[in-house]
Amino acid sequence: MSNLVQDCIFCKIIRNEIPAYTVFENDDVKAFLDISQVTKGHVLIIPKKHLINFFDYSQEDAAKYLQYIPKIAQAIKASDKNIKGLNVFVNNGEIAGQVVMHSHIHLVPRYDENDGVNVPHINHAAEYTPEAYQEVANTIKQHLS
Questions:
Q1: Which PROSITE patterns did the record assign (predicted)?
Q2: Who's near 27: CB < 8 A, 6+ residues apart?
Q3: Who is most buried in 55, 64, 99, 128, counting CB within 10 A?
Q4: Domains and CATH numbers, the chain
Q5: Is 104 annotated in the active site?
């Protein structure tokens, strides 16, 4: 357990200073029930290294920590025959809704269309020309390392 922060609630969960309903744990990650339970079986996956969000990840961090998403998602689905889908959410930064500043991935099981979970989908396609799309793509490509 490297780079843990003293006052981070998720680091405290990793150190077992705060109880959690753990569903999976190894040397790399801990996965536990989100206390809010947006839907039954809502799980958080956190790295055992204090990373604030994906902007802090290296390629190695991503390979090390994100590889567990399918395994845990499959276990969630297998746990209840009524689960028909799963949303995977990651909020990066306060403006994106991140509340705890320790990287975490939400796995939210979906049971039916009327479960109260609303994932916004905003379509701005009419505001873009092919040239505008290409300009945005080119600008992002210039910053890949």
A1: HIT_1 (PS00892), HIT_2 (PS51084)
A2: 48
A3: 64
A4: 9-142 (3.30.428.10)
A5: yes
